[in-house]
Fatty acid kinase subunit A-like middle domain-containing protein (Chrysotila carterae), 394 residues
Amino acid sequence: FIIDVPDEMEGDTLSRAVNSFGTSVVAVVAGAAGRRLGKVHIHTDSPQAVFDKARSLSRSKSLVKEKAEDMLLQLELADCRDFALANAPRKVAVLGSSGMSLPAELPPALTPTLANLLFMVDDETYEGNDDITPQEFTDIMRREPNAMYTTSAARMGDYLKKIRELLNEAEEVLLVSLPFQISAGTKTAIDGALAQLDEAQRQRVFVWDALAICANLGVLTAKAVKYSSQGLSASEIIEKLEHMRQESGFWVCPPNIDLGIKSGRIPQTPALKCLNSLRLLAVATGVRVPTIAEARASSNAKAERLKLAAVGCGARDKVVAKLRKQMLSVVPKDTPVGFTLQHTGRPDQLAGMIDFIKANFTVKYMLLSYLDPPSLISMGPGTIAVGWFVHTED
């Protein structure tokens, strides 16, 4: 983190102030009087407590910059970075899209190729993560709340170009896709790209509709790259991802549905049934999320596996209380679980959630990240999201 510090504070003073929160502490203070900044690096299991302490030390009682990376997740995804295997000729190349939230800790060797979604702010267009990061997009939405924000699926030409490039690098290409029932444009673009390939090329491309969004989609895609590095075929990877998705869930808590209506996403909510969203229009009614057993017993079990639920909007305390109640009723307590937590530029909105998760579940890893721009456009600043995956293997 970086904070503005009092003129009399030096690096060793700042280091001692946070030393009890973790290890590998490095603190540097620099700048002229009245404009001195302190920067701290620390390894800790309690990032929110560190940020709270940092605010208390700051002259303005706020943070200039904050960043929390999950090193346990990095080890989980990279398997201690066996790059000898990861850099070997690939049997399967993985293609995703910039509509997902990838773990920030991913090493380059385990990062998928991405087709770029288009993000529009009034008349200005950004091409996915190449032009703008989720944090930068969030900052724009906070500065310009009255602008028109829209998204467009990655273009057919972009998919075609990257599929052809990957076919030259690997035996097979696995395309991990946004849900087709949410993004019909994505299906149209992918179908158009496949139609441009010859028959031999098409037989080497496998498309998997992930039925997942946000950080959960990112984790599934990262897992696909990891399985690829282990020498699995595309069909074998899909089998593993299907199993992983069955033991997962995702909740999103928007402050309201105004942006969803403005962006045109709310009229599409019947299609969101594929994710068991219970419809964004019903967020204020508090419908209970089905358990894994109930979802599997449903006639639409495959579509309901993700258990995405818009659990509420309005008063933050009431929304978080409802979210915690649903988590206790659905998430396994005695099995290792990996969690994804997302915010829209206000990590403090997740205050207490980390401690709640640690106190009630067996945590495999916990990933904090910004909400991806497509979801942010529909739900707006102030949204929080929580996802989970059961880890019964690797």
About this structure: Residues 2-68 form one domain. The longest strand covers residues 23-30. The chain has three domains: 2-68, 80-244, 246-390.
